[in-house]
């Protein structure tokens, strides 16, 4: 079975332009990327160009790259860039263990051309890395503002090194790579679901003030990526349901139970909304509305200039979730 590579030629878009130095990143990444696609195709692989032809914003440019890769079910996603900022050498970024192994091979081949090997780094902050379904890497081939790097740069050699790194690793070649991808743990992969449904989930999590593992609100992009999965896991822990990191039936039911804004007071038995309330007011989460929860709610109501009645009614819920 042929491997399918998603090749993302970095930047090259009106709202998403690359760095400048001795050379222009947009120009040389395009040159290298097109050669990589051509070389992979010549070797019998399938290569999908994931760079959008146009976009209306930077976020749209990034979203389209991921969307193209996921819709084409690529086996490996490779985003090609050049660095800037006063350094020298080549490096790559990855999130999953499979991605890191692939990145190691690519960086090794590029460094053999005479570039400093800066290694493989954590790519969890990079949108295109964390939101692709396949193992993904982002390569910073060299520094455009390094005279040394640009003096030895040759697009043909660079493309050949990238292709060699992608295709000549025994553990990641052909069906072996597919087997490794299939076996990789879900915590290091991205799940894709219908975008409209996921946007609703992301919107609900933001409304409930559930943040990702970095403490940030979710981008409502319709992609069930690592950040959305981490927010789902947090919510599921708060609600006291199985931490599946997926928008499953129990999670949607828990959303519904809270968004109904039920009347809660001492003695109420409604565990999921009570647990959410306890989390928001900063008391121990056990799903039981007792004296400690009542006292915590008094404090919350006082801070928000509400009547201190110890009851989570309409006005309290309005402050909590709007």
Structure overview:
This protein is an alpha/beta fold and 322 residues long. It has two domains: 185 residues, Zn-dependent exopeptidases (Aminopeptidase, 3-Layer(aba) Sandwich); 127 residues, no CATH class. 47% of the residues lie in helices and 11% in strands. The chain contains 13 helices and six strands. The protein has a six-stranded mixed β-sheet with strand order 2-1-3-6-4-5, with helices on both faces. Strand 4, helix 3 and strand 5 form a beta-alpha-beta unit.
Short description:
The chain is α/β, with parallel strands linked by helices and about 325 residues long. It is built from 13 helices and 6 strands. The chain has 2 domains: about 5-190, 3-Layer(aba) Sandwich (Aminopeptidase); about 195-320, no CATH class.
Query: What is the CATH superfamily label of the largest domain?
Result: Zn-dependent exopeptidases
Radius of gyration over alpha carbons?
Answer: 24 Å
Strand content: 5-15%
SS-derived structural category: alpha/beta
- The shape is elongated
Assigned CATH class of the largest domain: Alpha Beta
Number of helices, where a helix is a run of at least 4 consecutive DSSP H or I residues: 13
Query: Number of DSSP strands?
Result: 6
Helix and strand succession?
Answer: EHEHEEHEHEHHHHHHHHH
Q: Helical amount among residues, as a percent range?
A: 40-55%
Q: What's the number of domains?
A: 2
The biggest sheet amounts to:
6 strands, mixed
Mean pLDDT: 89
Distance between the termini: 52 Å
- Widest sheet: strand order? 2-1-3-6-4-5
The CATH topology of the largest domain comes to Aminopeptidase
Uncertain segments: 170-176, 178-195
